[in-house]
Specification:
Helices cover 66% and strands 0% of the residues. 45% of the residues are buried. The protein is globular, with a radius of gyration of 16 Å. The protein is mainly alpha-helical. The two termini are 25 Å apart.
């Protein structure tokens, strides 16, 4: 619950992950379209990339496997298709590491994290924070998924825009999808060749967002 809180000082609230550009392009203009957008992202990107990455990273942190962490980090960075998506994962990862450093300055994972310059990508850093708090891989993935969903629903409330009641309806509709996404991620955890982050329109919208005239979010 602590890790999934939007109060965690990692800046997740400042990113729309393409949603702001989708609203600007007229692709997401009401509650139903926001629901479809978020469900698509959860099923097509999180369940097949961010969540299995976090589960695999959790195992690597636990084992102290620096080589595995470097391989996972390289995969994540190679799949960030725009500058702002890459900057997001590194900024949030760096902030998560700073949070852990303040909380547990002698945690052994911090030395391993130093081998992932300039910072562990967000799902790797989140997995390290979860491990430090005693979460297993399954709970780590659940927390990461809900953290993403909560931030994205708030982004939808502000950009579409939607009312707060609509935001709560989105959470009610999408939270039940998380266990299936986590189950898929756990199934993919050790099968890196089956991970995928293939969302061409998301990449195009993110690239457009970098030069969008007016915007609330960093990405």
């Amino acid at each position: 619950m602590w890790l999934a809180s939007p109060a965690l000082p990692v800046g997740g609230f400042s990113y729309s992950e393409g949603l702001e550009a989708a609203a600007d392009a007229g692709l997401v203009g009401d509650e139903a379209q926001a629901l479809a957008w978020l469900r698509g992202q959860l099923q097509l990107t999180l369940a097949r990339s961010e969540l299995p990455v976090a589960c695999a990273a959790h195992a690597a942190w636990q084992a102290g496997d620096a080589a595995a962490l470097q391989t996972i980090q390289a995969w994540v960075l190679s799949t960030r298709e725009t500058a702002e998506l890459r900057q997001q994962t590194l900024q949030m990862g760096r902030s998560m590491l700073e949070w852990l450093r303040n909380l547990q300055p002698t945690h052994p994972g911090l030395a391993l994290a130093a081998q992932l310059p300039p910072a562990p990508a967000w799902p790797l850093a989140f997995a390290l924070g979860a491990l430090a708090l005693g979460l297993d891989a399954g709970h780590t993935a659940h927390a990461l998924a809900f953290s993403w969903l909560d931030n994205q629903v708030q982004a939808a409330v502000r950009t579409v825009p939607l009312g707060q009641s609509a935001g709560q309806r989105l959470l009610a509709a999408l939270t039940p999808d998380i266990p299936a996404a986590v189950a898929q991620a756990r199934n993919l955890q050790t099968r890196m060749d089956d991970w995928q982050s293939f969302a061409p329109m998301l990449a195009i919208l993110s690239a457009r967002h970098e030069t969008q005239y007016s915007r609330l979010f960093r990405s």
